[in-house]
């Protein structure tokens, strides 16, 4: 395929980059990467060995010691050049995201645009890494806070956003003065290799140190090396709650810091005062976009009884119009799940929730035949359910939407929304100001992201992204999320000829 050639992807690929070159292939058995679109073998990748990982980590540490001395605006200039390179390769990289991961081409191109956007954001940020000045209680003293580069940042990303989440972390970390080691999902390493090929051009052209922005393809054993590595003072981990709980404990045990972006069980509240012409499309896209494989996917829709039947009818009708097939065909709405294991999880979740008392309204089939040879295509499902069902309480990473009725005021709906272990994204559709303000108040939605009259997915890079409770509490991307990639330092300067002590303490000699 032409886009593979443009991105430097061959039949056999090394899986370890130091940012300015590729290490020789190790003796590890290569990973075969098949597309969920058609089941075809795309390429093979030789994963990183333990010896190669330590080699990369040493180079990253050495690169950091040089990079931290470069001024922040100069660091921003490098990120600007990376953004320009991504613009040049947007089309082929978007096509590769779509073919390797399975999301629609529009979403693949959107993911690359998200990378470009975060580069632009980071360039501006490079001139705004500001501290604070405060008054000292001691005369002729000045106090202020400043931020310094953290060190080498480890990034472990997931398959569903194979490149965007890496860029959120890496571009911000880079302008903050950090080096980065990236472990992409072993399910989607080709997009990572393509990104490294693009970034390497910029790093080499600017004579930057080897190891500055590096990448290691591998399985859980490489992830464990990173979690245990004291050379990585900060780990950013995207994945399931189970993965994040393990990662957080491992990193905390060595007094490292973590940014955890974990599971979501996101809900949309549709009140009696909602504009259904806006609400229904918002629910549908939130539930079926990326075939339900976003951490911000809408998994529950909580609807007031007065509009429940109308919403149910509208949703079932809309699902019947979904076009499912090759995501590179822009006429299709829904592509495949990432692999057959995900298909099994989808089918099993529907079976379990029905056993608990749920009613399948539509979908839930595994598609077969021409165009569906990979075995990864399903029809998105809607199930009438109760919020307390065990299956509803957990996250199924697939296009499975639970339809839940509420009868009281908006406080009842908010309690249902908050009544799960996860706290990532949420939304309410209402034209009633009181309902909206109660939802956004500190006693309202307990999620890190709370939207009004838009869905749960489609976050912009300008805001900090992340959630609470079992979502992990991490924040990435915009706003002041950059502070997580730096260490804070408080400074007090005495410009008097005396030595007064704080709290009026006397210590006379």
UniProtKB/TrEMBL annotation:
InterPro entries: Ald_DH/histidinol_DH (IPR016161), Ald_DH_C (IPR016163), Ald_DH_CS_GLU (IPR029510), Ald_DH_N (IPR016162), Aldehyde_DH_dom (IPR015590), ALDH7A1-like (IPR044638)
Active site: 261
Occurrences of domain Aldehyde dehydrogenase (ranges): 22-490
Keyword Iron: no
Keywords, alphabetical: NAD, Oxidoreductase
Top-rank EC class of the record's enzyme: oxidoreductase
EC number per UniProt: 1.2.1.3
Family classification: Belongs to the aldehyde dehydrogenase family.
Summary of subunit composition and partner proteins: Homotetramer.
Name this protein carries in UniProt: aldehyde dehydrogenase (NAD(+))
Gene: pcd
């Amino acid at each position: 395929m032409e886009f593979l050639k443009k991105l430097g992807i061959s039949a056999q690929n090394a899986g370890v980059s130091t940012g300015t070159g590729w290490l020789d292939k190790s003796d590890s058995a290569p990973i075969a990467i098949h597309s969920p679109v058609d089941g075809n073998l795309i390429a093979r990748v030789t994963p990183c060995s333990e010896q190669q990982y330590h080699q990369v980590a040493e180079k990253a540490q050495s690169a950091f010691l040089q990079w931290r001395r470069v001024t922040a605006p100069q660091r921003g200039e490098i990120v600007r050049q990376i953004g320009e390179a991504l613009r040049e390769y947007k089309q082929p990289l978007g096509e590769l995201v779509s073919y390797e991961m399975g999301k629609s081409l529009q979403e693949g191109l959107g993911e690359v645009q998200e990378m470009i956007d975060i580069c632009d954001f980071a360039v501006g940020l490079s001139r705004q890494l500001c501290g604070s000045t405060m008054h000292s209680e001691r005369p002729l003293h000045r106090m202020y806070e400043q931020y310094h580069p953290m060190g080498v940042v480890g990034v472990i990303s997931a398959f569903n956003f194979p490149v965007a989440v890496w860029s959120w972390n890496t571009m911000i970390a880079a302008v903050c003065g950090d080096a980065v080691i990236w472990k992409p999902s072993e399910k989607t390493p080709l997009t990572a290799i393509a990104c490294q090929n693009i970034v390497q051009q910029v790093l080499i052209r600017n004579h930057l140190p080897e190891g500055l922005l590096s990448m290691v393809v591998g399985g859980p054993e490489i992830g464990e090396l990173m979690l245990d590595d004291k050379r990585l003072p900060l780990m950013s981990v995207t994945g399931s709650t189970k993965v994040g709980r393990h990662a957080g404990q491992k990193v905390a045990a060595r007094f490292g810091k973590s940014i955890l972006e974990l599971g979501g069980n996101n809900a949309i509240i549709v009140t009696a005062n909602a504009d259904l012409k806006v609400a229904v499309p918002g629910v549908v896209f939130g539930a079926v976009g990326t075939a339900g494989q976003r951490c911000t996917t809408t998994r529950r829709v909580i609807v007031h009884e007065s509009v429940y039947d109308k919403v149910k009818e509208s949703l079932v009708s809309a699902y019947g119009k979904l076009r499912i097939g090759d995501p590179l065909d822009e006429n299709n709405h829904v592509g495949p799940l990432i692999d057959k294991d995900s298909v099994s999880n989808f089918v099993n979740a529907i079976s379990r929730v029905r056993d608990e008392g749920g009613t399948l309204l539509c979908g839930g089939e595994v598609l077969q035949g021409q165009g569906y040879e990979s075995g990864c295509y399903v029809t998105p499902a809607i199930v009438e359910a109760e919020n307390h069902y065990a299956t509803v309480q957990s996250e199924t990473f697939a296009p499975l939407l639970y339809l839940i009725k509420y009868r009281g005021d908006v406080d009842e709906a908010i309690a249902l929304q908050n009544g799960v272990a996860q706290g990532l994204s949420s939304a309410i559709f209402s034209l009633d100001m009181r309902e909206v303000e109660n939802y956004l108040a500190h006693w309202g939605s307990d999620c890190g992201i709370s939207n009004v009259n838009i869905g749960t997915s489609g976050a912009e890079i300008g805001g900090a992204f992340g959630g609470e409770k079992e979502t992990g509490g991490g924040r990435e991307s915009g706003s002041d999320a950059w502070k997580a990639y730096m260490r804070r330092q408080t400074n007090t300067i005495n410009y008097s000829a005396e030595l007064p002590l704080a709290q009026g303490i006397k210590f006379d000699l």
